[in-house]
Specification:
Layout lengths: L6 H24 L6 H14 L3 E2 L11 E5 L2 E3 L13 E10 L2 E10 L5 H19 L7 H14 L3 E2 L5 E3 L6 E5 L16 E4 L2 E3 L5 E3 L6 E3 L5 E3 L2 E6 L2 E4 L4
Antiparallel strand pairs: 1-4, 2-4, 3-12, 4-5, 6-10, 7-8, 9-14, 10-13, 11-12, 14-15
Helix pairs in contact: 1-2, 3-4
The protein binds 2-amino-4-trifluoromethylsulfanyl-butyric acid and cobalt (II) ion.
């Protein structure tokens, strides 16, 4: 069942979303060569906690950290570690804040110093893919129109869309109905209605979309070792179109 949220619930998600966005804004200035992914995780945990919210990823299904830090060929759910970022890396930081029981979820990718032309194009295409999806998040469209638009755009740019991880409804739980695929045919499944809240979070690979898992059971990498990138926002559907909740 897809729940729609009240204006009050959406206002709490907006509060959580603003803290997530402010944290990403701070990360954009902090991320540079020499910073470790554990330092990023500690920063995220402190930032969210200092704003009287909780980092919802920590402890979620046993996930041990506040942030996911996914470097280069890591698609998502990378574990923070002693690894220090190097010039030329790209990193996705994913976080969720919960405020008075309501969640907001956003992942953002960052360039570490100067990056390759391919990495630059991957970041541009993935960022654009998120907004190509957001444009479809309007009342009367089908949820599947989002993924169809994203896949069409990304493949025309010569990259691939990950199948194994998808966007999701969000609200009182981090993961709710509906599933928001980033690929597939249009005009299928549930229609988009006022008050729905869900994420769009395309993961885009330079090579094939296939995934291989590390032994930690979380870290998902590209099977072919190619670079991967992700941008994610949490949205609320209004009569005037999608409102991005995870922005300043
Ligand atoms: N924030 C992620 C998402 O977009 C969830 C990561 S799983 C967790 O759905 F265990 F790290 F929380
Ligand atoms: Co998400």
């Amino acid at each position: 069942m897809i729940t729609t949220k009240s204006r009050y619930e959406i206002s709490l998600m907006r509060e959580a979303g603003k803290v997530v966005a402010a944290c990403h804004d701070a990360l954009s200035r902090m991320i540079r060569p020499g910073v470790s992914t554990l330092e990023i995780d500690r920063f995220v945990e402190e930032f969210i906690t200092r704003h009287k919210m909780e980092p919802a990823q920590k402890g979620y299904k046993g996930y041990p950290f506040a942030a996911c830090t996914s470097v280069n060929d890591v698609i998502c759910h990378g574990f923070p570690s002693e690894y220090r970022l190097q010039e030329g890396d790209i990193i996705t930081v994913d976080m969720v804040a919960v405020y008075k029981g309501l969640h907001a979820d956003s992942a953002w990718s960052y360039a570490v110093g100067e990056i390759s032309e391919t990495a630059r194009k991957l970041m541009e295409v993935t960022h654009r893919a998120l907004f190509v999806g957001i444009e479809q998040a309007v009342i009367g469209n089908h949820i599947s129109d989002i993924g169809h638009a994203i896949q069409t755009y990304v493949e025309a740019q010569g990259f691939s869309v990950v199948r194994d991880f998808i966007g999701h409804g969000i609200g009182r739980r981090m993961h709710e109905s509906p599933e928001v695929l980033h690929y597939g045919p249009p005009h299928r499944g549930p229609k988009i209605k006022r008050g729905m809240t869900f994420t769009i979070e395309p993961m885009v690979n330079v090579g094939s979309y296939e995934v291989k898992m590390d032994d930690d059971g979380w870290t998902a990498r590209t099977a072919d070792g190619s670079l991967s990138c992700q941008f994610e926002h949490t949205l609320a559907i209004t009569d005037n179109g999608p409102e991005i909740l995870t922005q300043l």
